[in-house]
Amino acid sequence: MNPTYLAADFGGGSGRVIAGSLRTEGKGYCLELKEIHRFANRPVQMGDYFVWDFPSLYADMLEGFAKAARQGLDVVSVGIDTWGVDFGLIDSTGQLAGMPVCYRDTHTDGMPEIFAREESPQAHYAEAGIQVLPINTLYRLMAMKRADDPRLDIARRLLFTPDLLTYFLTGHEINEYTIASTSEMLDARTRSWNEPLLRRMGLRPEMMCPITMPGTVVGNITPRVAEATGLDSKVKVVAVGSHDTASAAFASPRNYTTDRAAFLSSGTWSLLGVELDEPVLTEEARRAGFSNEGGVGAKTLLLQNITGLWILQRLAAQWRERGEDPGWPALIDEAEAAADTAVIDVDDQRFSRPDAMEQTIAAYCRETSQPSPSTRGEYVRCVCRSLAERYRKAVEQVNTLLPRPLEALQIIGGGSNNRLLNAMTAEATGLKVFAGPAEATAIGNILLQAITARQINSKEQVTDIRQL
């Protein structure tokens, strides 16, 4: 049997366990992917906080592993990737100190402004190189500190979401580089924790683990996990690009004839950027809102975090609640036939936590003296057009930071299936647009596991990808 690698891929709304195996094909390898288990991810309001249901996520991951074992797959390793910034705290007994808080929780509102009064934004960016967003880990910890949250006092370790899942699989505590880079607490040049900053914020640097780079074998699954899942106790857990953007960017194909290309990881969030060897920590980059996030191979991903398909997801959820569920292909058909109406600012804060997305868009249109959409197709077309315009702005801004302007854009992730958005993006940016793969995150996760296992030497050896 071919060795099988399991990717546990967690998104803000759902998670999947995907199996990947390589077989020789011609002069290269074909990567065969099979979805083993899919599950919902439902953050819940508990008291004053909006939290992740971590025990359910962990149990669903184990169920995916168990299904793989029951199918008789020769699993040699697993890798975990998730969204960024969120974390759990481990106490002195090795247990989770409360549910991890979701980045959409409101307790970090206003924290960046307070931070900017205490620290120089220019000097801070020259160290961290991260776009200031209230969701960043730094501001969650600030909010906890200012509220005298007792969990900070009892915390022995801070583990980001994929690190937390890895801990309960292996018993080993790590902070993987790409996920740590989303925190705004890492020194972008040294790729290590900014301990002076942590101390100034009243935080204990010893809560953090030494940085682990992608491609590191963390350890084997514990005997308890092996017993619960039916996997062999020799199955390894590999630190992949644990931030889903890093895994997706690693899988981004180079099937065009220019190196002047950006990637657009299109999902709940849109992340548009380029892969570089070193961070760009200039004032120009700061003012344009660029982040220098970690990539696989000690790369830097110079990118902008842009609200992505979240707006469309919330519209679809609202329509389902009132009994309308035509499905995405039909919605795209409706949008292609619809008329243009308004262009909205997708990054406007009101769209991040709306009570009702349809009404929120209509109110924005009234305030900006634009015609409001009136049909489902017009709403979808409005959002796609607005995203394309936002991508155009991001491309123009990144071009000011590069020696030569971009010529191509590779759209990866689930949003690469949205043909209307792809076409509008090509028209708005003037770039050659290539779409796919939709499963880029899982593919990047699995490819790095295969490289770590030395089945292949580089991702370029994989010449074909097939969905089983």
Q: What percent of residues are in strands? A: 15-25%
Q: Count of DSSP helices? A: 17
Domain unit count: 2
Radius of gyration: 22 Å
Largest sheet: 7 strands, mixed
CATH homologous superfamily heading of the largest domain: ATPase, nucleotide binding domain
Whole-Å distance between the termini?
Answer: 16 Å
Sequence stretches where pLDDT stays below 50 over 5 or more residues: none
CATH class of the largest domain: Alpha Beta
Class based on secondary structure composition and strand pairing:
alpha/beta
Give the overall silhouette: globular
- E-strand count: 21
CATH fold naming of the largest domain: Nucleotidyltransferase, domain 5
